[in-house]
Design goal:
By secondary structure, the protein is of the alpha+beta class. The protein is built from eight helices and nine strands.
Length: about 230
């Protein structure tokens, strides 16, 4: 059974809850009794007694600092989104200007390396490797039959339709980045079209925190749609 503190005044006892409820029901009380604000004192965190007005100012200042921090974070996020949108726009123009599949792959590789400043990227296309003998994409471009056993470690990802970010298995890492796998700290796997029907784009970063499961994948989804649309032309 809970008990409420009592305050004695003029021989009568008033509960603190009753005072609380009265002030809550009459928020303009101190406007009508302004002199009370400077006469009431509260214990400050430092141990000194301060007036209610000073306490309110302190609380408001702390709220202002919190709001200012939140505003700076929102501004920073907005600027980052604007920068990403500009990069997507530039990559779109480069892909539209590509005249064939080979120049499309080159434009994508250059755009990923210079425009998006990624450490490693691999474009995996499903198909007959022999049909792409005229395209030398180096480590960036990989053609493989979708039924190839080398893709078994990716089956769960390939059965889905959304990007995945974070740490990946060693077998996946070595398949994608081969001898440079040890330099990669985090990875984003981006499906090209629904359930990776065309293939997928793997983006590797040396920063272990750049790609993580809790991050937004909106940008990566748009990137996947853009790349898929460009490749479908051929």
């Amino acid at each position: 059974m809970s008990t409420q503190a009592k305050i004695s005044y003029g021989g009568d006892e008033i509960s603190e809850q009753a005072i609380h409820d009265y002030l809550a029901a009459h928020p303009d009380f101190f406007e009508n009794h302004a002199s009370l604000l400077t006469s009431l004192h509260l214990q400050h965190a430092s141990g000194d007694a301060i007036s209610l007005v000073e306490r309110q100012v302190s609380v408001l200042r702390q709220k202002d600092l919190k709001l200012e921090k939140q505003l700076k974070e929102l501004i920073g996020l907005a600027r980052a989104n604007d920068l990403l949108a500009a990069k997507i726009h530039e990559l779109t123009l480069q892909l539209l200007a590509a005249a064939d599949l080979k120049s499309t792959i080159v434009a994508l590789e250059v755009g990923m390396r210079s425009g998006f400043n990624v450490d490693q990227a691999v474009l995996v296309i499903f198909g007959d490797p022999g049909a792409f003998d005229d395209i030398n994409g180096g480590r960036f471009f990989r053609v493989i039959e979708k039924s190839d056993e080398a893709l078994n470690p990716f089956r769960t990802f390939l059965s889905g339709s959304s990007a995945r970010c974070g740490q990946i298995r060693d077998t996946q890492m070595h398949f994608l980045f081969q001898e440079t796998a040890g330099e990669i700290g985090s990875v984003a796997l981006v499906p090209l079209s629904g359930e990776s029907s065309i293939g997928f784009l793997a983006i590797g970063s040396a920063d272990a925190n750049r790609f993580h499961p809790g991050m937004s994948i909106d940008f990566l989804t748009r990137l996947g749609d853009l790349v898929a649309g460009a490749l479908k032309r051929y």
